[in-house]
Structure formats: structure tokens, C-alpha cells
Amino acid sequence: MAITRRDYLRVAAQGTVALGALAVASLVPTGTRAAPIRPPGAVDEAYFNVLCVRCGICLEVCPTKAIVFAGFENGIAGVNTPKIDPLVGPCEFYRGRCEESMRCTQHCPTHALQLIEKQQVKLGVVELSRDNCLAYQGKECVVCSEMCPVPEAITVSRDLTPAFHPCKCVGCGTCVYVCPANPKALTLLPDGARRP
Question: Which of 77, 177, 61, 176 is nearest to 113 (CA)?
Fold first, then answer.
């Protein structure tokens, strides 16, 4: 049976529509997508995505460039909103160049990021992959505990392996940033994050 030009165009159009629908569906947030790690002082997620105007000012003032724009990986509602990427740099609200001021909160024009006491900030917690950790592979490495700015958030046992304590971790991402393992042995998760 011969295929006419009209048949060809109709089938091609249907295929284009189907591909477009799949592309849109892939952008819809699902329960399996990881929530982003928000900068200090971020309001509740539903309000944050409405208040944030995606101006990028917080990215510009971040001294470590740890704040980056979110892509589609966290769902379409949060595209181009700020999030912390500890692979780029740690959030130094606890110790370092941003300790006293938390510049991102001071410069946010819409109060999606609000001024908050340093002691109240918790961005999340760190998860350890023992399979990737150099110390658990028998190599000498205690970089995470040496660089952690929070006392007793990471302790080292007698066999020089690290233990992470979520109740003390503030989620700054310093340990993730300095971890020499490839791939990284540490992942920053939004679990337990406190919002103003």
C-alpha cells in the first residue's frame, strides 16, 4: 500500500506531539526527585518558589560560589531558583568569609531568603558512602573531620574511619567539597533542613 504525502505528514505530526508530551512529563516533579539544598534562611519550599524572582543576586554575592541555579533535576517549579551545590563550594555561614553576614539573606530583594541566626541554620545532613570512602578502603584520610567547622559533627574512630552525626551536622557541605574520593564519598541531603 502506497503512503501518501498527507499520511506521512499526519504520522510525523503525531510522533512530534508524542515526543513533546514525553518531554513535558519528564519535567513534572515526582516523589523520586531529590529536593534541592536551599541557601540559609530559605522559607518553606512552596513559598520559596513563589517569592523567588530568579534574579541571581544571591549567586553573585556568595563568596564561595556555592549557590547555583537549579535546573530541571529538582522539578519544573524550581527551575532557576538558587540552591547549594557543595561540589562547587561550601556554604560558609558557620565559619569563613560569610560567617557574620550571610550575604545571600541580606541581599535577597523578595525575602525568599530571610535573615536568620547562625545557630538556627541547618541546610541538611551529609550521607556517607563507605564504598567510596578512602578511610573505609584502608587508606589514610581524615580530611572531612579535619575540615568540618562544627565540633563533633564528624568523629574519627580508632581505626581512623569517620562517623557522621546528623544531629550536629548543619549541612554546610564543607566535607563534601574537600572529600578527595572520586566519586565523592559524601552527599549533601536536605533531610532535617530548618526553614524560618
Answer: 61
